[in-house]
Amino acid sequence: MKVIVETDRLFLRQMNEDDFDALYLVLADTEIMQHYPYIFDEKKVREWIERNMNRYKETGFGLWAVCLKKTGEMIGDCGLTLQNIDGEILPEIGYHIRRDCQHKGYAKEAAKGVMDWAFINTDYPALYSCCKYTNEASIRTAESVGMRFEREYPDEANGTTHVSVIYR
Ligand SMILES: CC(C)(COP(=O)(O)OP(=O)(O)OC[C@H]1O[C@@H](n2cnc3c(N)ncnc32)[C@H](O)[C@@H]1OP(=O)(O)O)[C@@H](O)C(=O)NCCC(=O)NCCS
User: Fold this and answer.
1) Atom of ligand 1 at shortest range from CA of 110
2) pTM for this model (two decimals)
3) CA-to-CA distance for 81 and 79, rounded, in angstroms?
């Protein structure tokens, strides 16, 4: 297993099919699902893993498994993906943390690690984070690593998407 990002309490590594149970607990949660236009059933979670494994091959990055250093347990995902943001393909930092592990600074710690990784290992001049405009936890997490409001735009999935950005 190769550690891609290491922080004080966490390490991030590539996810794989064996992470299904852990990731299902993260994504198939009503609190988390309220911000998405679809239900995270078993099929969606398996597709999520497969899509990220394909991203690693295609771009060298994706959403990685966020694991506790103390136990090795996977408690969420965080990483870099290419997303269509208001018609442009841009690098986005995304994060999902299992509900019982939230409010402990893990998303902030993981996102900061991913941001540092991206500025060292890619040439992107800016990194973005997007979510539904009402997703305060996600917006606050982006801002906690230094991102700032960039724009809001109407889109089908979110109604209105809120975009945060940080420049290198
Ligand atoms: C967004 C999410 C990853 C945050 O995880 P977390 O580990 O609880 O976040 P942290 O503890 O690192 O907190 C980061 C910042 O967000 C704030 N925050 C966290 N949850 C919050 C909430 N429910 N409401 C308001 N602010 C919140 C924290 O206070 C902190 O800000 P601060 O440093 O200014 O105090 C988590 O809530 C989650 O998984 N949500 C569902 C998935 C999701 O919506 N992901 C983004 C999709 S685009």
Assistant:
1) 12
2) 0.96
3) 7
